[in-house]
Specification:
This protein has ten helices and 20 strands. It is α/β, with parallel strands linked by helices. Strands 1, 2, 9, 12, 13, 16, 17, 18, 19 and 20 form a ten-stranded mixed beta sheet that branches. An eight-stranded mixed beta sheet has the order 4-3-11-6-7-8-10-5, covered by helices on one side. Strands 14-15 form a two-stranded antiparallel sheet. The longest helix is centred in the middle third of the chain and has 20 residues. The two termini are about 45 Å apart. About 50% of the residues are buried.
Length: about 500
């Protein structure tokens, strides 16, 4: 049953008010092996995973009441685990504002006076304000056509076709083709550009309906201006529309924009350390709790559950928190579930710039994204190889924890800057690395269900999820108890 945003916010306030400080458990011996691996259980992970990625969570779309509901759930689980609130004002929550820019529902498109269904038969490349009333000129390829006309052409493959097998291949192909072709066609100063989907873009059309109509999401910060769409509106239409786009026919469009400010939220919890001097420092465990929400149905399923992306890490952080609550380290453990990651790493960008603890106390960030699929013995540690490695000391701690405890076979190829996925740049460790904090990224990499409704909890390898959780915990335990905090390598400069 749907829940209103007010219900979610009220639950957050009630939870924050009811959070009580747990008694600090006894200290662990410095340098000891991870003492609470047994606190990380398959049963806990399975229970939390199936609840967090169930259909009742409605895909946890960022900046919606569904994300807020999921955040309340995470905070309550953290409280039950004995983790203390570490957000704003003594709560588990750090709210931040997102500005959404999208086309108005009143926006219209027509051919010869007959409506063309926006978001059903046509999608826009980017949000734009425009009034168009002009004749159609059919052209070939990237031809410019007569000035002031609505130029229509068949979509052609981009010059740089994404490598086969790369994630979201058809969507990347379609966006790349639209951008490249429309850039060339703008030289003729058209009133609008209409590209007719080829067979590849036709496959991507449902995904584009879901994402393009969402518009743009930005952190609503002073001095941040919304990017304005340059030039004429660019449409992609289904191939069935081609016969209506006759040369000389009248094409009209009235496209308006609307803007809203929505709340999103980071959930922040803490387990205090035991060392009187080091407890002021924090080992950060990082993930995100949002996903894609409800979208175009795929095989009859419209809920994009996001079990691997990223409920696996969300529940892993809860399990690691239980372990630290049972046996804390010398340094404090800080847990941040970032909001609105799928909108562009917005929660981690906000928190890394405005942490709820002193910024200089952030010793290291151990981030995870998608840790429950693929071969049982395979994994990757991004940020472990140059040029992405920013702390050799932190990487060595993670590799040693893997050698001693979990023994995954690591795929380093995804750290190569030439890798087509650019995976290092697509998760929440990135803003911290850019801010000069030692950071690594645990993952079991992509799979065919990535960003589809098929990313269901039944497809998660719980045994592998448990091992990955133990690896993150063992690494964090080493950092929490090390005599010296890991340092950023001299001369490190992150460039894409």
């Amino acid at each position: 049953m749907p829940h209103t945003r007010s219900v979610a916010l009220a639950a957050m306030l009630a939870l924050a008010a009811g959070a009580a400080a747990a008694q600090t458990p006894r200290a662990a011996a410095p340098g000891a092996a991870p003492p609470a691996l047994s606190a990380i259980t398959r049963e806990d992970l399975r229970r939390d995973l199936f609840e967090m990625s169930s259909d009742s969570m409605r895909g946890r779309e960022g900046a919606t009441h569904d994300e807020l509901r999921a955040s309340v759930w995470v905070a309550e689980r953290a409280r039950q685990a004995g983790m203390l609130p570490a957000g704003d004002d003594g709560t588990y929550f750090q709210f931040f504002p997102l500005r959404r820019i999208r086309q108005t529902a009143a926006s219209t498109v027509a051919i010869g006076g007959a409506p063309l269904a926006l978001w059903e038969d046509a999608v826009l490349l980017s949000p734009v304000t425009a009034r168009v009333d002009a004749q159609i000129a059919r052209v070939e390829g990237a031809g410019t056509g007569p000035e002031g006309r609505v130029v229509v052409a068949s979509l052609r493959a981009p010059t740089r076709i994404p490598p086969r097998g790369v994630s979201l291949w058809e969507w990347r192909y379609a966006l790349g083709a639209m951008r490249e072709q429309s850039t060339a066609m703008r030289a003729g100063n058209p009133a609008a550009i209409v590209l007719v989907a080829d067979s590849v873009a036709a496959v991507a059309f449902g995904r584009m309906q879901h994402w393009q109509r969402e518009g743009l999401y930005l952190l609503d910060e002073p001095g941040t201006a919304a990017p304005a769409a340059a030039g004429p509106p660019v449409f992609l239409v289904r191939s069935e529309v081609m016969e209506r786009l006759a040369d000389g026919a009248r094409f009209t469009a009235d496209l308006g924009l609307e803007s809203f400010v929505y709340p999103s939220v980071n959930v922040v919890a803490r387990v205090p350390g035991t060392d009187p001097r080091l407890r002021a420092e924090h080992v950060v465990f990082s993930g995100h709790q949002d996903h894609d929400g409800i979208g175009e149905p795929v095989n009859g399923d419209s809920i994009w559950n996001g079990a691997d992306d990223n409920a696996t890490v969300s529940v892993a952080l809860l399990a690691i928190g239980r372990a630290f609550a049972r046996r804390p380290g010398r340094r404090s453990a800080l847990f941040v579930w970032h909001g609105a990651e799928e909108r562009g790493l917005l929660g981690s960008r906000w928190y890394s710039a405005r942490p709820t603890v002193p910024r200089e106390s952030l010793v290291a960030v151990l981030n995870g994204d998608m840790i429950g699929r693929n071969h049982p013995d395979s994994a990757a540690l991004l940020g472990s190889m140059p040029p992405h490695r920013n702390s050799t000391a932190l990487v060595e701690m993670a590799l040693e924890a893997n050698r001693r405890h979990t023994r995954f076979l690591l795929d380093n190829s995804w750290d190569d800057p030439a890798h087509p996925e650019n995976w290092y740049f697509r998760s929440d460790h990135l803003p911290y690395a850019r801010a000069g904090v030692p950071a690594i990224f645990f993952t079991t990499l992509l799979h065919p269900d990535y960003h589809t409704p098929e990313d269901e909890p039944e497809r998660i390898d719980i045994a592998k999820l448990t091992r990955m959780t133990q690896w993150m915990y063992a690494t964090g335990w080493a950092v929490a108890n090390a005599a010296q905090r890991p340092r950023v390598d001299p001369g490190f400069k992150l460039e894409r």
